[in-house]
Protein 1
Amino acid sequence: MTYTELLEQARKNMDGYCLACPECNGAACKNKIPGPGGKGTGGVFRRNFEKLQEIKINLDTLYDGEPTDTSVELFGRTFRYPVFAAPIGAMKLHYGHLHDDLSYNAELVEGCCSAGIAAFTGDGIDPQVYGGALESIRNAGGVGIPTVKPWDVGLMKEKIRMAEAAGAIAVATDVDASGLALLKNVPTPVSPKTVTELGEVVASTRLPVVVKGIMTVRGALKALEAGAYGIVVSNHGGRVLDQTPATVEVLPEIAQAVQGRMKIFIDGGIRTGLDVFKVLALGADAALIGRPFVTAVYGGGAAGAVLYAEKVGGELAETMAMAGANRLSDIGRDMVWL
C-alpha cells in the first residue's frame, strides 16, 4: 500500500468526519468539533501547521558523511526515530465508526511498536478506554505511554499503579485537559494541578512522568520543579483554547530555560520528517504526531501506522543527510532558518 492509497482508504472509512487531506493543515475541517477541527475559529490548529512551514532548512552537504542514524534514547530504551504517536480519544465521535477507542489503540500501539517507535494512548470517562489501552501496551511488551487525565490526585495515582502493572515504559498526564467542559460534570472531574499536587503524582511512581500541555517557560519550570521526566510543548492540537501561539513559536524559549534538565517533546502541526528535523533543531528531543496517525490507522490499521512512521522517518533521514547531520545530536539551531 502506498501513502496515497492509505489516504484514499481512510476517506472511505471516516464517514466524512475527516477528509484525510493530503496536507493535514486544518483548512478543510477548521472548527469542526465533533470532528478533527480546532476550538473556536480553528485558528490554532492552522497556526501550528503554518508556523512550521515558515521555518526553512539550511542545505549543507560539505561534511564528513557517515551512515545517517535517526535513533534516539528515551525512557531507558532506544527508538528507531524521535517520533511518537500522540494520544487521541473519542474516535467514534470525532473520526468515524470504524474504530472505537479500544480498537484504535490496539492497532496504533501494535503499529508503532512494529515501526520501532511508541504510542502515547489516551484516557476517558469510560474506564474501559484507559484499561483497554493498557492491555494493548501490555501486549506490546510495555512499549507505550498511557496518558492520565488530570483527575483528582488519588485517581491519578490509581491509574498510574495500573500502568506500572501493565509494564508501561512511562506515563504521561495531559494537564491541559483540565479545561475540557466534557470532563467537568463527571463524578471525579478534572482540575488544574498545583506544583505540589503534580509533585505528589510524580513521586508516587518509579515510571518516568511526562507532563503534556506546556506552553510557557513558567509552566515548564513548574513541571521541572515537580520532578517531571519531560514535558510536551502542546496546545492540545488547538482543541482546548483559541488564540494561543503555535507550539513551535514557544519551543525555543522553553528549551533555553530548561537547558537539558528534562526531556522536551512537542506536538502541533508536525506532519513530515522535515517538520521533525525543524523542532529538533529548535530544542526538542522528540516529536509527537496526532491526527495523521489517526488517518493512518483508519486507512490501514497497524500496517498503516507502520507505513506512516516509516515515511516520516525516511524524510527525517534524508533531511539530515542534506543538512549535514549524521546523528540527531548533530542537529542544531544553525541548520534552520527563521
Note: The radius of gyration is 18 Å.
Protein 2
Amino acid sequence: MTYTAGRLFVGGEWVEPGGGHYDVIDPASEQVVGPAPEASKEQVRDAARAAADAFGPWSRTRPEERAAILDRAADLMQRDFAANAEVAQAESGATSATARGMQVAVGVARFRRYAKGALEPVEQGLPPQINEAGPMGKAGVVGALALRRPVGVVTCITSYNNPWANPAGKVAPALAMGNTVVVKPAPQDPLSVYRMAAALEEAGVPPGVVNVVSGASAEVGQAAVEAPEVDMVSFTGSTAVGQAIGEVCGRSMKRQLMELGGKGAAIVFGDADLDSAVAGIGTTYAFYSGQICTAPTRALVHRSVYDAFVEKLRGYIGFMKVGDPRAKGTVVGPVISAAHRDRVESYVELGRKEGATVVAGGERPDGDGLGTGFYVAPTLLADCTNDMRVVREEIFGPVVAVVPFDGDEDEAVALADDSDYGLIDYVWSGDVAKAFRVARRLRAGGVGVNTIARNMEAPFGGFKKSGVGRDVGSYALHAYSELQSIVWPG
C-alpha cells in the first residue's frame, strides 16, 4: 500500500513542492512507502511569513477556542488511529505495539493534555513592593504581575524515532500558548506529520497557524531556522546538529529548546534487585530498536554483582525477538536506514578493537524474513572502561556497554558524570535512601530510581551537551512562552 503526502502545508493550503519529491523507505522491507515533498528555500520562507501573519490573530484568541481546536484535532487523530499507526510503522520501522501505543496514542494524548493546558493560568500576582521616596519619585506601593506571553513563530524540527509523539510534544503546547509553528519533520518519516497537519486543518486551525515543510536536503531545515520571522527553534536530534542550530539562533537571539543526545548511565549497586535492573536496562533493545536518547546504554555495575548481572542480561536478550515489526511477537524491528545500521555495526566493531567482550550480538541477525530490512542484532558489550568510545559516544542503536566499578557512591557518581551528556540516568539499589542520595548528585536532567518509567508531568531535558531548556507537562507551556512583568501604583 502506498501513502501519499505529496504536498506541503503552507498558509492553510496544500501546495506542490518546489523541489519535487523523494521516496520514504520502509526500514523493514526496503520498499517505497510513498513520496514526500521537498520544499524549496523560498517555500520555507513562505511558511515562516504565513506563520508570522497568523500570529497576531491566533495569539489573541480566547484560550477556550485554542483548547477546542486541539481537542477536536485529538478526536480526529483518534478517529483515524489505525491508518495513522499503519503509516507510522511503515515509515519508522516501529513494531506494531510501539507504533500504536508509543507513537500515535502518545501523540493523541499530548494534544488532549495541551487542550487542557491552554486553560492553565498565565498570570501570577506578586507581593506589592513599598518604595521609599527618592530620585525616582514619591514614596508609594507598587503592584506587579508576572504574565506568560507566547514567544511568536516557532520552528519545530522533529526527530525520526517517533513521528507522532515528538512533533505532538512541540506543536500542541506551542499552539496552546498562542504561538504559530513551522514544522520541519525528520526526512526519514515525514508522512505522519502531514497526517497530523490534516487533522489540525479539519479541526479548524486558522490558515498559517500550522505549516509543514519537509525535505531530505539540510537546506530545508537551515532555512526554517534562519528565517527572520522565526522567534524560537524547538529541536530534537543530535548534539552536533543542535550546536549548529544554536550558533544560528545566537546570532539573532532566537529562543531555543533543545533535546539532544544522551548516553544514560544506569548505576547498579551490589544491593540492587538485579532482575529489575536487567529488565529496565534490557528495554534498550526494545523501544525503537535502541534509537532512543533516554535509554540506559551505559551500565555501571558494582563488581560484587557484575558477573551475575552480565549473565542475566545475556539471558534477557534471548527474549528479544528480532524481525518483521508487523509480525506477532517481534520485540526489535529494524533501525531507520542502511546508513544507520552500518554506523551501529561499526561501533560494535570498534568496541571489539577497544577491548570490549562481545557477550551477545555483534553479528547481523539472520533468519526468516531478515534478508531485507535494516536489522541490527541486540548487542551486549562487557569488560568496558569509561575511556572507550563505545562508552562515551551515543550509538543510538541496540547496544549496551557494561562497566564494572569496585568502590562506593563517590566512584559510581564520578563514572556516571564522566560524560559529555546528561539527559537521563538511572540508579538501582535496595537502599532507597542511598539511591535518592546518589540521584541528587548526578548531573542529569532526570534520574530514574529503580525504574525506567517516566512521569509525564515532570520536566524533561538535559544537562551539558544533552540540551537546553525543559518541556513536558506544564513545563512545555513555560518553554513556549516569554515572561512579561506589568507594574502599577498601588
Note: The chain has two domains: 8-260+466-489, 265-461.
Protein 3
Amino acid sequence: MPSAIVQPQRFALNPMDNVMPRFYANFILTFGLKPGVEFSEVHSLLQASLETAANELPIIRRRVFSVAPDDTDPNPGRLEAREHPGWTPQVIYNDLSASWPDYDDLMDEGLPQDTLDGAQLVPSVHAKWDLDGEGASACIVQANFIEGGLLLSVCLFHSLVDGMSGSLLLKMWAKCMRQHQNDDSGAASLAITPDCCNYDLVPEAWAAEGNKLPSPEEFANSDDDAWRLLGMLPPLSPEKLRARAAFSLDPSKAQPPPEMTTTIFYVSATAFTKLTALATTPTDSGVSAPPTANDALMALLWRCIMRARAAADPANPAYAARGALAELDTTLDGRLLFSERLPWAYMGTLIFIATTRMAVTSLISPATSLATVAHTVRSAVDTITRSRLHASYGLAAAMPDFSEARYPFATFEGAEACFTSFLGLPLMEMRFGGKVFRNGGLVDHLRPPRREFDAVCRRCVVLPPRPAGGFEVLLSLKREEMALLEADKEFAQFAQVLCH
C-alpha cells in the first residue's frame, strides 16, 4: 500500500500580515572559521541545525500563497501560509574562495559594503517567487564560503516575518547550531511555544477588546494618519488604481534611479552616550516623557540627512517652499502596546509606523537644538496609543483588496525619510557555536546586501549593537547628498565613516 500523501497545513494570514509589503528582507551574517575547518562540515551543521530549528519553530517550513476570493471572504489579494514537513529550506552551498579576498582581509577593511554583491551572495530564487505557483518560502538561506570565513545570507519573506520575529528565528537557529556542536557557551535559553505561531492571535485580541470593523463611511473618511500608522497610504479609487503602477522593488519596473552611494558609519559607545545626554536635555516643549537613546539617534540622523538633502537640491519646493514639512517615519514593534493577550514572542508581523513632522527650516536650523528635535520625535511616538493601533488595524481588516496597498516610502519625492532601527535587537550577541566558528560563533557583522533599494528610494538602517558597545548605521543617499553628510560637522561629532 502506498503511503498517504501528506497535505500541507494551511493558515490564513491576518490583516497585519496582508498589508506588509511583499518582498524579501535580506541580511548577511559573517563568521570567521577556525583553522582547518572544512566548508562541507560547516554546511552540514547549518543544514542539520536548521532542520532542528524548524521542528521548534514551524514557520521556517511555511510558504506564502495567494488565496482566491471565495464565499467565506470575497475580497481579493489575501495570503495564506502553508506548512509541510518536507519543506525545510535547503541551505544553498556557494564556494567563493577562489575569487574572493580572504575573510580577515575583508574584516580589516571594515567589510566594505560595495563588496556585498547580492547577485553573488543572495540566492536568485528569492527574486523569483510566485504566490500563485510554488509560493514564497518564509526563509531562504545561502552559505557563501570564502577563505577563512562564512558570509551567511538569510532572506525572510516580509509578509510572514518582521524585525522581532526575524530576530527570534535567527536566535532559534543559533541555539540549534550550538546544540549540534555540543556547545552551550553559557547562552541564554530560548523557548518559543507553539501558540506564538498562530496568526489568529492578533484579530482575536483586537475583537476581545470590543473593536468592530469600520462602516463603509468610516473607512472612506478615515484620516491619512490612521493609514500612515499602518505604513500605508489611503486606498485609491478604482479609477486612480487603474492609472497607477503597482508597488515593486524590481529595478526594471522603476524610473531610472539617481546616482546613489552607500556609506557605513560607526557610532562608538562613547559617542552614543554623549549624543544621548545632549539630545535628552530638558526643553520647554512640555513633553512629559524624556526622549530615549533611540529617539536621540533618530533626531541626529533626521536632522543631518535632511540638511544634506536640502543643501543638495535647494530649489526643490519639498524643502524650499514656505511651510515645507519634513516627515520622519520610524518602525514601531506593536506587540506590547497592542494587547497583553499577545505572547512576547508572537511570530507573525505587527509593525506600525511612527511619523514625526517638523518644518524643514526649523529642523535643519542651527538655532534649533538637537534636544528639541529629539523631544519632537518622542512626542510623536507618545501619541501612538492602543486605541490608535486598534483603529488602524480595523482599516487593515476592512481593506477590499490587499494587493492594491500603497506605501509612502518607495520614492525619491518629497521630504520624507524612513528609518529602520535594530538597536533594541541584540543580534550581535547570538552565538552559533565554537566548534567550527571563531569567537564562539559570534556574528562579526550583520549587513544587508549592497544597493538593494537604490532603484526606488534612499535607505537608513541602524544595525544591531555590538556586545562591546557601539553600532553601525547604513545609509544610502544620492551621491551629492552623501558628500554633504560626510562633511557635516555636527554629524561627524558622533558618527565616523567606516567604509563604503
Note: Residues 239-247 have pLDDT under 50 and may be disordered.
